[in-house]
Design brief:
globular, 105 residues, alpha+beta, 22% strand, three-stranded antiparallel β-sheet, 3 helices
Amino acid sequence: MEIEARFFYSNALEVTLTPFDVSLKFQRRGTVTESAPATLTQMQEGTGVIQEAVVIGMSPQHAKVIIPALVQMVQEYEKRFGTINLPADAIEKWNKLVANATGTP
């Protein structure tokens, strides 16, 4: 029997760590008021209204195994569709993550 999964779009993420688990709180942030949408600054600062959230909890071991799979998925996406543009500080973090995930210096 297949379990039906619900699609959830996220544009914000909070990560919580304990010695025993990792929790990822995926959020969809939206309008500040009904008539005035959140600005980019509000979204970056996390001041937009959270419209919906889903928390996924897992072991630290599971989180560590997921990282290389996500790196590989993003690299495959960029091969097929082109480079994903990021702010300079995010590019530096990404390059370090890729190096660590793939074992390359």
